[in-house]
Write a structure and sequence with these properties.
By secondary structure, the chain is α+β, with helices and mostly antiparallel strands. Helix content is 28%, strand content 20%. The strands form 2 sheets. The chain has a 7-stranded mixed sheet, with helices on one face. Strands 4-3-2-12-11 form a 5-stranded mixed sheet.
Length: 305
């Protein structure tokens, strides 16, 4: 993936339907969010050291938002298993969503992307015990027979906050108009993503959740809104905004970990999002770098403060 625009790490959407009952107001929690690494042998050593250090912290889970290898690195089973084994050995659940370097961009090294995607699903998601997702009481989309393929889409709730993990990747989300196999894959996965988002937001609204965290890999072109591969996803998010379902979209980019908030629909935000000034969110979600030299943040969610 071209890293001029750094990967979108996390989209947080604050529902305006906040107002939990006393029984739902669980304590806050912390987690470690990482992504776009390791890209080199040196980063691999330091990433493993970081994960070992994090084991003694009270993080509820590890998050990796995709691109666990460099674009030019082999898209081999051995490469996949090396990271799978690293995640499997981590003593806490691992919330992982694939990046484009894992499969979409594998045609650049002479490998079929769709075949690599099938392998990713088998190695990381087919068995929920692999990433300890069974300990998170996740709801995978694959339980729905119509979407049984999409084992990588799942949601879970912590302290009332609903996390939606959706498979949206860089490199245009595999939208390649001149390549029929890619378009077939894109259309099917995109339809599954939109159905899962709709269902998940309906659940959050019905539960009167204080917040929703949408976890994806890609930057879905919020700034310009030109990419066809992200059009459905953007429209899905902004539909909830126009209906007053949440206050703002907050994006975390791993270059500087900057959070921004846009209160305008995408067509009116071409000059970039407005500065984030929502004090309520500052209380609800806070973060700081966990390791300055690696793409990692220590995040805290606490809606009770």
């Amino acid at each position: 993936m071209n890293k001029t625009i750094t990967t979108l790490a996390l989209s947080l959407l604050m529902l305006t339907t906040a107002g939990l009952s006393a029984g739902e107001q669980d304590s806050g929690f912390r987690f470690l969010a990482t992504g776009d690494l390791p890209y080199s042998p040196d980063q691999d050593v330091r990433y493993r050291r970081l994960l070992k250090q994090s084991e003694s912290e009270d993080f509820l889970f590890l998050m990796h938002v995709g691109d666990f290898k460099a674009q030019s690195a082999p898209c081999s089973d051995d490469e996949f298993r090396r990271i799978r084994d690293l995640f499997q050995a981590y003593p806490k659940p691992v919330v992982y969503t694939p990046g484009d370097n894992e499969w979409t961009d594998c045609d650049g090294v002479g490998v079929d992307p769709v075949e690599r995607l099938d392998t990713l699903r088998d190695l990381f998601f087919r068995d929920p015990k692999t990433l300890r997702l069974d300990q998170m009481n996740v709801q995978p989309q694959s339980l729905d027979p119509k979407h049984s393929t999409y084992v990588e889409n799942y949601r879970f709730s912590k302290s009332g906050v609903l996390f939606i993990v959706a498979h949206v990747v860089g490199s245009g989300n595999n939208y390649r108009a001149d390549h029929p196999p890619s378009m077939k894959e894109f259309k099917s996965r995109n339809a599954a993503n939109l159905a899962f988002m709709k269902e998940s937001f309906a659940e959050a609204i019905a539960a009167d959740a204080p917040g929703v965290a949408v976890v994806i890999h890609a930057n879905p072109d919020f700034e310009k809104g030109n990419s066809e591969g992200f059009k459905g996803y953007r429209c899905n998010l902004w539909r909830h905004k126009r209906q007053g379902r949440f206050n703002c979209v907050i994006r975390s980019r791993f270059s500087g970990f900057g959070f921004t908030c846009s209160s305008s629909p995408i067509p009116q935000a071409r000059n970039g999002p407005k500065p984030f000034v929502n004090a309520r969110w500052n209380q609800f979600f806070t973060y700081r770098p966990f390791e300055n030299s690696l793409n990692s943040i220590h995040a805290v969610i606490d809606h009770t403060t």
